[in-house]
Design brief:
Elements (H helix, E strand, L loop, with lengths): L1 E2 L2 H7 L9 E5 L6 H11 L3 E6 L7 H4 L3 E4 L7 H12 L4 E6 L2 E4 L8 H10 L4 E8 L1 E2 L14 E4 L4 E6 L7 E9 L1 H5 L12 E7 L30 E5 L1 H8 L1 H4 L10 E3 L4 H6 L10
Parallel strand pairs: 1-4, 2-3, 2-5, 3-4, 7-13
Antiparallel strand pairs: 5-12, 6-13, 7-12, 8-9, 9-14, 10-11
């Protein structure tokens, strides 16, 4: 199905929101759109919403798998506007959001579905899951000038760290079970990244509830949603493997000609498998085995 805008979908297509979990894919450009949509469908999302420009085309087989909504994901505040509208329309459903050229991985995702993982997560009385956005980039920027190549994708195997999240910018008090995470290209090329956009944590998976609001910094109005674990033990976390930062650094005129390669001594080929991410300590299986 296809809808002319988000309001049209919320008016006539809301029945699609009755089958979850639901993936919200915000399409900013025409890079790897089909592979992003296909990946999340295969991951087990019952409904995949493709919010994308009207002029973009999709392969026929992908059109049949997704609900397409004409949308400008590059507009100011577009992410929060779309996600918050869908939160209000789908109370109780598990939602996930990401952008094109981003791919969700969770522990044992090769043999288990997203629904199975979220069922376990809910049994642990959790309504949200921390996801780390791990940068992917092509190894050869001469051959792949937009820094995107699925077959030659690399990631950083080290250089990740966290800092306590402060209650206020000018205070010393830290928020309980909340951390700001850094690393990847946003850390190595921080001179090209605004300070407010250097974090790599995102609450990518969450259960919609009345009054819940996604904020501009990828956190929620309910502070418990922003925690990395419950008080009594470690919980599951997941990873969003993303070409988004690499694309931006090679598109932005201020950085495009300053960066000749993203590779460094801690680069490693991405294996497109959850085991690699677990071995690198980039996600946590918690009590799920």
């Amino acid at each position: 199905m296809r809808y002319s805008d988000l309001n049209d979908f919320l008016k006539d297509g809301r029945t699609a929101l009755s089958s979850g979990p639901i993936a919200i894919i915000l399409v900013e450009d025409d890079v790897e759109v089909a592979t992003t949509l296909r990946h999340h469908h295969q991951t087990g999302f019952k409904t995949v919403l493709a919010l994308m420009p009207e002029s973009f085309e999709l392969p026929a087989d992908i059109e049949e798998l997704v609900v397409r909504i004409d949308f400008d994901a590059t507009a100011e505040g577009a992410t929060e506007a779309a996600v918050n509208a869908l939160i209000n329309a789908a109370p109780g459903q598990w939602l996930y959001y990401c952008y094109n050229a981003e791919y969700l991985f969770f522990p044992f995702c090769e043999t288990r579905t997203i629904g199975e993982m979220l069922a376990f997560h809910a049994e642990e009385r959790r309504d949200a899951m921390l996801t780390y956005v791990v940068d992917l980039y092509a190894d050869d920027l001469t051959r792949f000038p937009d820094a995107v190549s699925l077959d030659h994708a690399h990631l950083d195997r080290s250089g990740y760290y966290s800092l306590a999240r402060k209650v206020s910018e000018d205070g010393n008090e830290s928020k309980e079970r909340q951390l700001d995470f850094f690393g990847g290209l946003r850390w190595r090329f921080e001179e090209h990244i605004p300070e407010s956009r250097r974090k790599i944590d995102r609450i990518g998976l969450f259960r919609a509830q009345p009054g819940l609001v996604l904020r501009e910094n990828h956190t929620f109005s309910d502070e418990e949603y922003n925690t990395y674990a419950c008080p009594w033990h470690h919980n599951l976390t997941a990873v969003i493997c993303s070409f988004r930062t690499a694309k931006a650094l090679k598109t932005n005129p201020g950085s495009k000609f300053e960066i000749e390669t993203f590779k460094w001594h801690n680069s490693a080929p991405f294996e497109w498998h959850s085991r690699q991410l677990l071995d690198l300590g980039l996600m946590e299986p918690g009590q799920w085995f």
